[in-house]
Amino acid sequence: MGYIKWLGHAAFEILLDEKLIFVDPWITNPKSPIKMDDINKADIVVVTHEHGDHLGEGIEIAKKFDATFVAVFEIAEKARQQGVKNAVGTNIGGPVEIGNLLMYFVPAFHTGNPTGVVIKGKEKTIYHAGDTGVFGDMALIREIYAPEIVMLPIGGHFTMGPVEAAKAVELLKPEIAIPMHYGTFPVLTGDPYEFKKLVEEKGLDTKVIILKPGEKLDF
Ligand code: NI
Ligand code: MN
Question: How many angstroms separate the alpha carbon of residue 1 from the centre of ligand 1?
Fold first, then answer.
């Protein structure tokens, strides 16, 4: 039994194959349901790119709990220089073994050494798209990894909005899509209910699950 808990913005706490993973842990984001002191364990920290709203408190969490910090090479080096002991530098390509999990860093169209990440465990395969626009090769992510659960930015302005994210769902064909990266600031206007409606209008099997910050999806 695992879960995906939304911590606001692009931050998620994921329990997968008994590993506690923080993805893009900007714990001090305006919508965060928790404070740094509420975290008392972390096995793995994954950061999709170096923008502050994604790197967040990732280095601090990795140091505090001796967690494995995983990101592209340049970001991992920065973390190592700042005292993270277990920093794993990766890049876009094939599998990265982190304990019993496999991670695949995939493209994202953005700035700041951008990636998305597919995390594959025995229980589930999960794709966190990071910050990105929609791109046709999301069909390859579907073809190769077939993630059952995807987290997609829908806020617009810096990333996909609802229309583009609905297209991403069409390409990825997941069982479940969770919208993220909206509502944090006034400029991130993308509406999760519009996203849900657009996905439903496409007649796809995907279920859109809109989490409130602090809510979790059990799997
Ligand atoms: Ni960004
Ligand atoms: Mn962002």
Answer: 31
